[in-house]
Every structure is written in C-alpha cells, then in structure tokens.
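<instruction>
Derive structure tokens from the sequence
<entry> Chain with its tokenised backbone below:
===
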Amino acid sequence: MRFLLVLLAAVPAYAHDAGVSSSEISVNGRVVAVEINALARDYEKAAGVRISEAGSGSVNAVALAVMTPALLGYVRGHVGVFSDGVPCEPDDGKALAADTHVTIKLVWTCPNDGELRYRLSLFRDIDPLAQHLASVTIEGGKRDFALDRNTPELALSGAAHSNFQVATHFLAAGVEHIFLGYDHIAFLIAIILWANRLWPVVKAVTAFTIAHSITLSLAALDLVRIPSAIIEPAIAASIVYVAVENFTTREVSKRWRETFLFGLLHGFGFASALEELGLPRAKLVTALAAFNCGVEIGQVLIVAAAFALLSAIDRWQISGASKPVRSPVLVHAVSFAIVVLGSYWFVSRTIAS
C-alpha cells in the first residue's frame, strides 16, 4: 500500500501542469514585436504573484496593474530575441487582461544584421513539459511552430521547416508522449496481463492502434471534437474497467474488441496532446502521420517489454511444470494497483473539469 501511495503522489492526473501558452510574432526588418498569451494562473505560479480571482480564474485588473512589473520581469527572463547569439534589447512592455489570460506585449530592436532567433523557456521552471505555440509573420507569410524543452528556439529568418524536419519533430513527440502517458500505458498493461501467447497481444494492440488512429485523425483534422472534460475521465474509467475485468475472466483472445472500443476514446486523448504541440497547417498530414507513427513505436516497445517480462516471470516462478503458468497473485496485484490509479485519475479529472 505504501508503494501505491508513492505512485499516486508521483503520477499527475494530466500530462502537463502548465497550460499551453502562445505567441504572435511579427518581424519587420530588425524589429520583432511579440504578443505572449498565457493563463493568469500559470503566471501566478511562475512569478509568485496573485492576479486572478479565486473562483473563476478571471484576471483582476487592479491586481494586474500592480503586478505588471513582476510579470514583465519574469517574461523578459524567459523569452528573448537574439541576433547572431547577442541578446536584443526589449522595450518596457505592456500587460493586458483577457478574461482568464494575460497578454504580454514586448518589442525587441536588434541593431546588427545577424540571424534573428526567438528563444523561450516560459513556465518550464514550474512544468518541464510546458508547451508553447508560436505563430510567426514575416513579409506577409505566416508560419506556425511548437516550442518545448526539446525545441526551445526558432529562427525568425530563412526558409520554413522542411517535411523531414517536421516529421522528425513530431515522430519524437509521439514517442515521448506515449512514454509519459501513464494512463495509456496502464490500459495496455491491464489488457495483456493474462496473455501467455503472442497472437492475442498482437490482435489487441492492432485493434487499439486502428481505433485511436481513426479518432486522432478526425480530431486533428477538426472533423470531430469532444471536450477533454468528457474524454479524460472516460479514459480513466476505461482503465478501471479493463483492470477489474482481470478479476472476473482470464479470456484474452476476445479483448481486442474492448481495445478497439476504448481505443476510440484514447485517440481523442492523443489528439489533445497533438493540439498542444501545434500542428503546422502547411504540413498537417506530415505532422499527423509522424506523430501517430511515434505513438505506435513507443506503444510497441512498451507492450513488447511488458509481455517479455511477464513471460520471464512465468518461466522463473514455476519450476518443473510442463509449461509456464501465469500467477493469479501477480495478475490480481498489478490489476488492483491499476484500479487504484485509474480511480484516482477518474476522480481528479472529474473534479478538475
């Protein structure tokens, strides 16, 4: 039980603690104007100020006016424009309220003729996985970028990212997301706990892949939208369901039907993560396909490792048996842990929504 409590303390209800921030960047010669938009509560946690109402989260205009110097100081320390690696000088800046968000306006002027770059580490001191979407307008053309800890800066001059660069970025993001998607991992492990043959595992994983690829694509293309307030608790409920089922049946050959059904839900969860990365409109298909491939690579690695470990335990714990036997104690113990985690996620996500 102590182990379970440690797990509950360590595993977040959502993938990220900070909301997704964004910036609108306009480049005019050597002048770079930036409007940064983020949740007031993220600024509060990062800058140590209080600017929003306790219940609604709406920005208090008076508090914002008082705390503007602190906010601008925090932003200047985590956002910058550089010319050949030399910091450009920002103006005094402004902070404006926008419901539950705050928009910071800053203008950088760069004196020399070097390459301009935009560098950002906003909110990574409170959430290392914080995501930022940047929209850059240069000479009438607009490009979209996603910044995170792996891609902390972008060029404000030169050609747009190639298909290869976009594919590489989103492939890595897909792999990272599945390895950090503890709820998706828990679901897959619960499904294969009774499996002692490879074929049922292949069927279950294939069904899950097909299902979540469908809804991920529909959501990414903006054809179907379901609020995360519904999807996230539903994903947690699916985890509890498949884990509880391990106490009532050992039949795994037909569980591919469940993985397909619940995979549709998980696909919408993947879509939320993909939206946070910021899909480049000009290379939408490339980014979507690469992210999906990254998710599948990570998923196959996790399932293969889990199945190999279970098979090794079967061979190790039963000596002299004609064939390896899965221990009910092991399956029930792991399933119980997954039920506890899934229930925690369900309650916390329901409250948060």
The longest strand covers residues 31-39. Residues 21-160 form one domain. Residues 1-16 have pLDDT under 50 and may be disordered. Residues 318 and 324 are 7 Å apart (CA to CA).
